[in-house]
Amino acid sequence: MNSQPMPAKTTEAINISELDHHFATEVDRRSHADLKRCYQCRTCGNGCPFVEAMDYPPYGVIRLVQFGMRQKALECATIWVCVSCHTCSSQCPNSIDIAAIMDTLRSMALEERAVIGNKEILAFHLEVLHSIERYGRTHKLGIMLRHKLLTGQWFKDVDVGLRMLTKRKLDLVASKVRAMDEINRLFLPYWRVKPR
Amino acid sequence: MNPEESLKFSYYPGCSVATTAAESNYSLMQVCRLLGLDLQELEDWNCCGSSSAYSVDPELGFNLSARNLSLAPGDRPLLVMCPRCLHHLRHTHLEMQQDPRKRRAQERRWGRPISPDLEIVHFLEALIRFGLDRLKKGAARNLNGLKFVPYYGCTLFRPPALRRQKYYQAEVENILTALGGVAVTRTYNQRCCGSFLSAVKPELVTSLVNDIIGSAVAAGADCLVTTCAMCQLNLEVRCTAAKRLPIFHFSEILALALGAKDCQGWFIRHLVNPRPLLKDRGLLGPPRLGQVP
User: Which of B194, B189, B239, B176 is closest to B215 using CA atoms?
Assistant: First the structure.
């Protein structure tokens, strides 16, 4: 069974003057999740399949937001570990879209250049985006190889990669969108796009 | 709409179905050929944005999905195989439906119309429209009591943003039971497979996958049938349990029941060989007469 992590440093004092009183409203407005409805029943933490790998359980992150503890919320690992499987929201008695809160916090963390709570997961996402930028589609072999190059873990998972290769599950050549100019435009500010 | 027209779809395969899970694409094509569904692949489709674009830059994800929608003809529903792609495309479309300004902005961006009434459906929806009775009539063989876990994973009916949309709970078992299979449902059949964490945190995903497969073994299942290409892959590559079960794409089992001939070519692409099980159940080789459900 999953064991829920205890919220980190429960005894730590909260400095009221450092709280961001607009944070919850801001997250609410961007995520449309209505997180003020959360009354900390902790159901989300019980259901989450990934809670072991998180530093705060989902309700802990919501509490940080409710309290206005901006930096802690944006720098935690939980927001990166969440895969949006929606187990939490399907069990939440107040039907709060918890994954949408995580999405919003991730975007805010990147915008504000907060310390990233799990760099490896972000690195993986960036590899996927790199592939989309280059081909318009994801090229699994390229993503895996570049991810290995960046993390330096060449020997982790070699067996899985080889088995997938022998079963021809990893295409050597990437499938590519033909109208790549349409894809390129999405990765540039509009004023960088070459005029017709 | 006459019944013939209702069987025409445009088709969005998505990156996984087109590559790593090509066997699910091949088997889908067989099913459509055998049932007479007319599928037209979207011309020059792109990635829906996958989890990564929505994690890092939701606007980029929205734009990527909107481009795909701008490629879809408005006169026929868009059929999607991958639950995650379905979720992203539908969510994007819903946002454009609710805010016509967003839709018009995307139409101007791509220089192509986007139909506000476009229907975006899962493959299961196409089968429901086709009708269970007609499906049974088209079956070439009985699944001979093959005990399967209908494994849905998480995305096909949980996204809260699509709360008021169609869900397909229990449709896999409805269809395969009608074709002679036996559904084993008291398992972790709606647990998340670990999604992209499979690439970054394999240990974590392994324990989830072992739980899921362990529950299927304990319930006496022969195999798992998934509707999601990523689940299929994670369940196959991340299982370290001593007893592994074959993991089928739903379209494979359906094509098998409908009498597709090139099944062997798909099954050799599996990491857990499903052929001994199918042979044992008499499901390989040409269907024998008198076996029809």
Answer: B189
For the beta carbon of residue B263, count every other beta carbon within 10 angstroms: 23
pLDDT single digits (tens) B100-139: 999 999 999 999 999 999 999 999 999 999 999 999 998 9
Determine, for residues A103 and B54 on separate chains, whether the beta-carbon distance falls below 8 Å. yes
Top-confidence residue, B92 or A174? B92
Reference A190, options B72, B89, B98, B108; nearest CA is B108
Closest-CA distance, A64 to chain B, in angstroms, reads 20
pTM, whole model, 2 decimals? 0.92
* Cα–Cα distance, A107 to A124 (Å, whole number): 16
Q: Which domain holds residue A159?
A: 119-192
Q: Output the DSSP codes for A73-84.
A: HHH-SHHHH---
Domain shared by A100 and A174, yes or no = no
Closest by Cβ to B44, choosing from A50, A139, A179: A179
| pLDDT tens per residue, range A67-79 | 999 999 999 999 9
ipTM of this model?
0.91
* Distance from the Cα of residue B203 to its chain's centroid: 26
The answer to whether residue A140 sits within a structural domain is yes
Contact between A1 and A20 (Cβ < 8 Å): no
Residue A183 contacts residue B46 (beta carbons within 8 Å): yes
Q: Which two three-digit tokens encode residue B150?
A: 């209908």
For residue B38, which phi and psi values (nearest 5 degrees)?
-100, 110
CB contact set of A162 (below 8 Å; sequence gap of 6+): none
**How high is the mean pLDDT of chain B?**
91
Both A99 and A27 in one domain: the answer is yes
Provide mean pLDDT across the span B45-52: 94
CATH number reported for the structural domain that contains residue A55 in this entry: 1.10.1060.10
Helix-helix angle B171-178:B123-130, to 10 degrees: 50
pLDDT over 80 (residue A155): no
* Residues B65, B20 within the same domain: yes
Give the closest-approach CA distance of A57 to chain B in angstroms: 16
Which residues neighbour B150 within 8 Å (Cβ) at sequence distance 6 or greater?
A: B170, B172, B173, B176, B183, B185, B189, B225
Query: Buried (b) or exposed (e) across B135-150, using 16+ Cβ within 10 A?
Result: beebbbbbbbebbbbb
Q: Is the distance from CB of A66 to CB of A35 less than 8 angstroms? A: yes
Nearest to A147 among B53, B199, B201 (CB): B199
Q: What is the pLDDT of residue A1?
A: 45
